[in-house]
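Hi Y.,

Following your request, here is the sequence exactly as I used it, all 484 residues.
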Amino acid sequence: MTTSVRGGQLARLLGQWHSLPGRHKRPDYDALAGAIRGLLSDSRLPLSVRLPAERELAESLGISRTTVSAAYRSLRETGHLTSRRGAGSWTTLPTGHRVGSSGLWAPDDGLDMIDMGVAASAGPVELVAAARAAADDLPRYLGSAGYHPTGLPELRAAVAEGFAARGVPTSAEQILITSGTQQALDLVLRLSVPAGAPVLVESPTYPNALAALSARRARISTHGLDPRTGWDAELLLGALRQTRPRLAYLIPEFQNPTGHLMPAGLRERLVGAAHATGTELVIDESFVDLSLDGSPMPPPVAVFDRHSRVVSIGGMSKAYWGGLRIGWVRASAPLVQRLAALRVGVDMASPVLEQLVAVRLLAQEQEIVAARRAQLTFRRDTLVAALRELLPEWQVCVPGGGVTLWAELDGPISSALARAAEDVGVRLAPGPRFGLDGTLERFVRLPFTLAADDLTEAVRRIAAVRHDLDRASRPAWRTPAVIA
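Below is the corresponding structure, written out as tokens. Let me know if you'd prefer a different format.
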């Protein structure tokens, strides 16, 4: 699926692309080609996007067409651009290189392993008492078969009340309880995305969402997020209008992995564009409760929905505990019933006891979430301080919420750094895991969900191996594990 970028849009993405003045100043065409390669490697410019015509880009940049022609020629020579007479030029990667975004969970195989590949916190202290109280509630349900495909009525009502408190009037009939947010997404995709359907996602984005889309054999296009500013409204809405995707999956609250928060104005325009293009918006609200700086939150995307285009998904993994596999879908009541009918063929229903635990925890939401926010704020600040002291060359945009930092490295070394860090007991999730086609090698996701001492020690180890990478004479390749 090929979209296009206009000259003015590409010029804005390129910013200050000219070669820096100096004795070894690069030719303008070389600097322009290098800047476009950089946009591709950082996934700010997606693959398979048609670049503007040479004359259009030259006018937008205020340079000669000859310079643009030479830059495009350089990009074709390095495999970053493919051109065909009459069809234009579109972005590619050399030799069709692709890196899968999905990966396998690795076992916690060492007591000294600091696992920074998982962006989830330990359970709250209130969990044990909630589980005991839930066990006392269980006899009320033992007289039935225990299958509740849409979820226990009291849990659906509690979740609906949470939406209403955020300004989205919601009835219990609009809530489907699922076994985690990932299942909520999977059910929506099963219902809404036939094989080959076009889908739009952010880049970078949540790796398991990409895996779920790949399983549906969706045709994925991407909107590249700026590491510092987040969504480009014109490009995002333009991508919707050009590709007219069946579905768009977005994370507007403290986006995973960048931590950006989508402004209210863009949320409203997004819903309007989705209605015009016939696109279903799947809004992942996994981090909506984790605002860390006390700033007012924008209204939920569903507030602007007048045509049942928005499906909100969320759960208890981030603010409460990942081991409590409770998620939900908020949608129109008819869509919830269709999802429940589909869900019966997957796992029948969520466990009754876990749902009762969730009811007890949601009743203590104010105290539990406040404690979680304070904990994460301290850990975020600890991680940022350690990075600034030990890895000052890295660029980090400090998020106002969520659980992750998106660190821009001092070179395209993310995968190599992850391999080296494993040897010193730190497990990392390198940038390419969060995108498509081998991009994002200049980035790594760093969650701040571990204890502060572990975060500081992890950065110390990472800094040591980062220094060793510069001195290594040749790469040390690993023998691939056999997966049967």
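Residues 97-111, 473-477, 479-484 have pLDDT under 50 and may be disordered.

Thanks again,
Q.
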